[in-house]
Amino acid sequence: MGRLGLVNSDAVAVALDQFLKPFCEAMIKMKNDPEKQEAFRFRLFIEILIIFRGLFLAISKNPNGIVKDFVSLCDALVNFENAETDLQELALKLVINFKVVAGQYWDNYFVNFPKELQEKMKLRFGI
């Protein structure tokens, strides 16, 4: 989906609410496999960078598509370490914008995140 997002973000944007959660779960699983050899990890790291770029492009075209599975997206974002600076900035901007839009409801929303995810988000995004 991320590669498709780079090529045709409009098509991905309209389907965000249908695939975001399983997509994020797969991203978390891919990144944390300690058995992979170093060369494969590097290739996987490059693939993940490309995937997240495409995903961010699609989200920019349909931000409402992430509302239902925002927790899963945050989990994938905080578990992706060593991202390039521009991807870190995009992730931060996405999370901060979501918080701003949630406004007065953010605290009640955020308290329902898993505790470990809350802590990681506080460290990564200063929330």
Question: How would you characterize the overall build of this protein?
Answer:
The chain has one domain. The protein is built from 8 helices and no strands. α3 packs antiparallel against α4 (38-61), α3 (16-31) packs parallel to α5 and α4 runs parallel beside α6. It is an all-alpha fold and 127 residues long. The chain has helices at 2-7, 9-13, 16-31, 38-61, 70-78, 85-102, 106-110, 115-125.
What attributes characterize this protein structure?
single chain, mainly alpha, globular
Structure at a glance:
With 127 residues, this protein is mostly helical. It has helices at residues 2-7, 9-13, 16-31, 38-61, 70-78, 85-102, 106-110, 115-125.
Question: Helices and strands in order, then pairings?
Answer:
Layout: H1 2-7, H2 9-13, H3 16-31, H4 38-61, H5 70-78, H6 85-102, H7 106-110, H8 115-125
Helix pairs in contact: 3-4, 3-5, 4-6
Largest sheet: none
The counted number of beta strands is 0
H/E element sequence: HHHHHHHH
| Total domain units | 1
Instruction: Describe the global form.
Output: globular
Number of helices, counting only DSSP H or I runs of 4 residues or more? 8
